[in-house]
Amino acid sequence: MKIKMPRWFYQLASPKWFYDFTGKLLPWFSLVALLLLTVGMVWGLVFAPADYQQGNSFRIIYIHVPSSILAQSCYMLMAVAGAIGLIWKMKIAHMVAQACAPIGASIAVMSLATGAIWGKPTWGAWWVWDARLTAMLVLLFLYIGVIALNSAFENKASADKASAVLSLVGLVNIPIIKYSVEWWNTLHQPATFTVTEKPAMPPEMWIPLLIMVLGFYCFFAVVLMSRARIEVLEREKRSDWVKKVIENY
Amino acid sequence: MGDFATVADFLQMGKHGLYVWLSYGIGLFLLVYNVVSAYWLKRQFFINAKRRLRREQGSV
Lengths: 249, 60
Description:
The complex is a heterodimer of chains A (about 250) and B (about 60).
Chain A: H1 7-13, H2 15-47, H3 61-88, H4 91-123, H5 131-152, H6 156-170, H7 173-183, H8 203-235, H9 240-248
Helix pairs in contact in A: 2-8, 3-4, 3-6, 3-8, 4-5, 4-6, 4-8, 5-6, 5-7
Chain B: H1 7-12, H2 17-59
């Protein structure tokens, strides 16, 4: 059986095309990310009103929520890229998946650390073995597992396959993180943003949060493309076009 | 200044200065770390690649 995919799908599969295309996108994404993160951070820190219950510790939300959302999105992208690599034998998908792992791990650390710091003044404890916190910790371990598998094999193809399979198995953790606040009695508050409902906070609080979330996504695009491009060069270093890139650098 | 009466108030963040600044510090550090480590990988690649290319061309 052969599934016909649109043209861009096959173009994207060409490492050279990917390298050139992301090279054009990078400066724009960098600019937008810098702009959004600066505006969002200043707005959240200085202009957003303090929470009537939590006071100023509430401002941690502008780092904690975007990093938590991104840590999960990054994982999903890594797993989907791994699946595409397994099914269509697309090398570039594996390169993207491999680039996702270290970024995702650092963002998961950010989510856990800011969560712990926020927990101290709010719940009175840095850490509780709450369903959501535990599931998030498992996410970090999954990232570390994928990174370890990536470097555990001499053969790139084996490393790609093994880490793709681990990413896919670990995907089960994502809905657990999402629904943990509904399935179990947890300390953690429910989602701030949902697609269907209006946020429970006033616009002067959630608009900067939305800006930060978008900023984190743009930032992720920047570092993901940067890392994936190096991976492309590394794996294609025997090809003529990469030799030209090296000579011209 | 925004939601705060004075800059001192802003730095103090009520009684939550430590928590807020620690969170933003960690956040910024990890963002910068991501950019720097990607740049570092790129630099390292080109240094090694140029050396290898020179060696190959020298041996021909």
